[in-house]
Amino acid sequence: MKGGTVQINWHGTKPVLTLDFHPISGLLATGGADFDIKLWLINSGEAQKKIPTSTYQNSLSHHCSAVNTLRFSKSGDLLASGADGGELIVWKLHSTETGQTWKVLKNLSFHRKDILDLQWSPDGAFLISGSVDNSCIIWDVNKGSVHQLLDSHFHYVQGVAWDPLTKYVASLSSDRTCRVYMNKPQLKTKAVEKMNYVCQHVIAKTEHQSADDSKSSKNHLFHDETLPSFFRRLAWSPDGSFLLVPAGSHKIPPASDAVNTAYAFSRKDFSRPALMLPGASKPVVAVRFCPMAFSLRESDSAGFFKLPYRLIFAVATLNSLYIYDTESAPPIAILAGLHYAAITDIAWSLSAQYLAVSSQDGYCTLVEFETNELGLPIPLAVSAAEHKKDLVHENKSPIIDKREEIVIETPADAGSIAENSKKTDVEKNEGKQASPSSISIPISNKPAKRRITPMAIDPK
């Protein structure tokens, strides 16, 4: 593995707020506070045993404000980008005599304020976006119109994710809740069903019982609006088996300090987190899965995920990056001290050769993996089908249940949070910002009768 911060002028010294790899060409798209989207060709550094580099290709210049989020559709022929002021643009790839070029396909207008995150539906026909106006919108891309408005949050929606099996969408807000919506289609005509998402779970608090069982206390699972980042990018695993949620804050009574963490939820049970992933000195702001699956390395796995293959994912805090697989408890790599300001986004190339990280300091980090360094790839379509059969027919959980529990309250109404924090340029440039430590707290389904003690993991 080779990696480091690439010292080039990505966006005119302005913060780089988002990035994503094209699923076919492998081009890296970056969006920044200079209002531009730029496309880069990634050059391997493996032959020279150096870090990978990037070569500028062209710019997509149509936004009138900072580009906070961009994502390619699975097919690669569409690109969606969200910006300040509610700007949301869908770009389409066109073939020309001299090559390929991106052109604006649609401007999607309804959000009143900054768009902070977006995600395509698996078939590329729909798009979900989250905004500072406290709402999520599901867009019908072909019609260029709002398909459904999800407005249950009471503060900024800073992360959205679409279930690859299409049953759920999820959103994460600075109102300290994660909401999971289930698709309950409505009959539009006699034979046609209309997609309709209804909130099924509001993940908000944990309940801790005292050692003598005399009383219990409830604590919030997530950071409040004082978290120094405008991004809380959550993600589904590529097989849909679990949802990974950042911005976690776990407090273990009687300790006064909370632990920064990310939570993993099995799609079979959103009532409680199945796993707490390592925290660090800074909050977790983004998680992203490698799009490939890999063969298992050991039969006597020490991991917490009951999967017939390995999935790999990255967890970014404000100042460090952890890389995990589902077969082992400790992180397989930790990168820290790469940037002078907050990490804003992370992205994997489809081939799993590259991992890219963007930052408020105006630079990006590129990490390159050698062939089969992460393991032997397995076609994910086959893996997902096998795993879906395992979930449905054999009723097995993808996450091992064998340790103490944290009960999660899922209220019908999470309660209102005062909207007194106004987003300014200073907040955005200074607030989106190293000695990481790892803590792993696996959780089971039996009622907790004693205090949960974090299990320290030596990353070395």
Automatic annotation (TrEMBL):
Listed Basic and acidic residues bias regions: 420-431
Tagged with keyword DNA repair: yes
Keyword Cytoplasm: no
Cellular component GO terms held in the UniProt record: CAF-1 complex; nucleus
Entry keywords, A to Z: Chromatin regulator, DNA damage, DNA recombination, DNA repair, Nucleus, Repeat, Transcription, Transcription regulation, WD repeat
Subcellular location: Nucleus
Main location: nucleus
Stretches for region Disordered: 411-460
Biased composition (Low complexity): 435-444
InterPro entries the record matches: Beta-prop_CAF1B_HIR1 (IPR055410), PTHR15271 (IPR045145), WD40/YVTN_repeat-like_dom_sf (IPR015943), WD40_repeat_CS (IPR019775), WD40_repeat_dom_sf (IPR036322), WD40_rpt (IPR001680)
GO biological process, one term: double-strand break repair via homologous recombination
Protein origin, superkingdom: Eukaryota
SUPFAM superfamilies from the UniProt entry: WD40 repeat-like
Pfam family, one: Beta-prop_CAF1B_HIR1
WD repeats: 16-50, 60-101, 108-149
Domain CAF1B/HIR1 beta-propeller residues, every copy: 1-374
Annotated family: Belongs to the WD repeat HIR1 family.
Name listed for the protein in its UniProt record: CAF-1 p60 homolog
Annotated source species: Manihot esculenta
Lineage: Eukaryota, Viridiplantae, Streptophyta, Embryophyta, Tracheophyta
